[in-house]
Write a structure and sequence with these properties.
Blueprint (H helix, E strand, L loop, with lengths): L2 H9 L5 H8 L4 H11 L1 H14 L11 E9 L2 E10 L2 E6 L7 E6 H8 L5 H6 L3 E5 L1 H6 L7
Parallel strand pairs: 1-4
Antiparallel strand pairs: 1-2, 2-3, 4-5
Length: 148
């Protein structure tokens, strides 16, 4: 069985950041992007953003009312998603959100490594793997609002 076939099987079983980390540990960025493109980038990202809403820690976002725009680059094509935090709840949607408090841009592979806990957001920022536009202080608090 090829490496990409193994990844296909594993992607169908991913339900947590821990499981995503296990897959990412076994493949390079080119392979994971290739497989995710075959699965459907929007489908995979939709599942990840939905999972983020389930892993939201309301107590860590007390008093926060903000939207986070994610700009995820997949071989030059930008996929936009926004996560909205308000009144102790968290929702996500595909698409642009011009009023976002912060916009975070990064590649698909780096996004996957970030949400799985493999990529430190501060290191990613200083290495320019992750670009933040807007409220940098708020951006630094986002990681604490989710179980990773």
């Amino acid at each position: 069985m090829s490496e990409e076939s193994n990844i296909d099987l594993m992607l169908g079983e991913i339900n947590s950041p821990e499981q995503l980390r296990a897959v990412l540990d076994q493949v390079d960025d080119v392979s994971i992007v290739s497989v995710i493109k075959a699965f459907g980038v929007s489908e995979v990202l939709g599942k990840i953003f939905h999972t983020m809403t389930e892993r939201f820690i309301a107590d860590h976002a007390e008093g926060t009312n903000a939207s986070i725009l994610w700009k995820i680059d997949v071989d030059g094509e930008i996929f936009l998603y926004h996560v909205d935090i308000a009144n102790g709840t968290c929702t996500s949607s595909e698409g642009d959100f011009p009023g976002a408090r912060v916009a975070i841009s990064l590649s698909l592979a780096d996004f996957l490594r970030l949400v799985s806990g493999q990529l430190n957001p501060i290191s990613a920022f200083t290495e320019r793997k992750l670009v933040v536009q807007g409220d940098l202080t708020f951006a630094m608090s986002i990681q604490n609002m989710f179980v990773i």
